[in-house]
């Protein structure tokens, strides 16, 4: 089983005015003036998590991470379908409606 370690470290980004999405819940959170940040380490990778997720504990973090992973997979599937359609359009012969100028000029912009 893989070890996932969460550490609370001094905030290296306390003067950073922007935020970042939590890697678990994807909610934007701000580092501004926070004394500490929570970092999740998996193998050689690391990412920040918000204090709300941290406070929920390990089981809630695992459940939320699985849910977010599925959301990302679903988004990717939709984008792949869109890409496949665009590839078909790019590689196909397009029959263009030049002959119906009245309808052509009234198409939504």
How would you explain this protein's 3D organization?
With 109 residues, the protein is an alpha+beta fold. Helices cover 41% and strands 23% of the residues. It has one domain. The strands form 2 sheets. Strands 1-4-5 form a 3-stranded antiparallel beta sheet. A two-stranded antiparallel ribbon has the order 2-3. The termini are far apart. The mean pLDDT is 85.
Structural class: alpha+beta
What portion of residues belong to β-strands? Answer: 15-25%
Q: What's the number of extended β-strand segments? A: 5
Strand order of the largest sheet: 1-4-5
Task: Describe this protein with a few key phrases.
single chain; 109 residues; alpha+beta; three-stranded antiparallel sheet; 5 strands; 41% helix; elongated
């Amino acid at each position: 089983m893989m070890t996932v370690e969460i550490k609370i470290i001094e905030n290296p980004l306390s003067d950073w005015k922007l935020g970042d999405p939590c890697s678990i819940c994807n909610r934007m959170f701000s580092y501004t003036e926070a004394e500490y940040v929570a970092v999740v380490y998996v193998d050689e990778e690391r990412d920040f998590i918000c204090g709300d997720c941290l406070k929920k504990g390990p089981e809630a973090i695992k459940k939320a991470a699985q849910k977010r992973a599925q959301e990302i997979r679903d988004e990717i599937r939709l984008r792949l379908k869109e890409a496949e359609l665009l590839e078909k359009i790019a590689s196909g012969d397009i029959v263009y409606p030049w002959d119906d100028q009245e309808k052509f000029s009234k198409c939504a912009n």
